[in-house]
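Example 3.2
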Amino acid sequence: MEHDQDEPPLPTPRGPLSRGVEAYLRTAGRLPRPEEIARAQVYGDDLQLALYLCYELHYRGFAGVSAEREWDPDLLRTRAALEHRFLSALRTDARVHDGVDEALRGLLVEPVHGTGVTHFLRDEGELWQVREYAAQRSLYHLKEADPHAWVLPRLWGRAKAGMAAVEFDEWGGGRTDRVHAQLFADLMTDLGLDTTYGRYLDAATAEALVTVNLMSLFGLHRALRGALVGHFATVEITSSPGSRRLAEAMRRTGAGPAAEHFYDEHVEADAVHEQVVRHDVIGGLLEREPHLAPDVAFGIDATEFVEDRFGARLLGDWHASRSSLYAPLTPEMTHTS
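Structure, written as tokens:
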């Protein structure tokens, strides 16, 4: 059977949890037991891929998997157990700030001598590292803004209007060619990467999966709407300076005009979005629901925590002159047309 372009194939399992979930999706096996989930490494490949498989049913699903699996009661119970492990760990490991203002102040301060991934790619990164970064980020950017859309029915007034305005920009302002997911696909084409949705799932590290799972976790739960807003604020506030560095990296490495344009677009757009998110989305939310302030702060802290882990993984591999991917970007994994 030929795979639908919009429904990627199921990935290779990475352990008993993801193997069990995948087998169940194929209607050929049992789901993992609670004691198996309790033993797994919470930020590890197996648990995070199992959770990613559950979440992806709410996006495009997988080829050969019935759409009815999205609301399968047994699968939802398994997902809840995976989420409980993930969320409990984040609440223990990631919480830094109690107040929103303090958490936001940390985002607004740019270090004089930055050492993160975008600094590395701007200053010394090579084209192969730029390509690896794009491949891993494609798990999110090919559905950019979609996880955040789930919060819209859960907001009111100024917060809803501000959030909708930013999302409208992310989806191209009504123009297909300006949808940010399409702009990222154009970037991937410049880099010689395959733009098929989910193509690099098998190659992506656990740390990359965690960054995407965090958005889905926050977006799918009304009780975590404050955390989702905190996540969104972190992305928008830190995007403009980071995108400026990545645009410079694209130019320096000769990545191509579409690759440059993707990040140039985010420099300008996200500088405006930052103000809307801070004043209207966060301000409007806390005006109506001030009790959600700790959740917004938690969303900010959790986002920084998982992004720092992802960055450390990339830089650790690259400084050791090795690939950050589980599967190298061979000709079979790149755009060949």
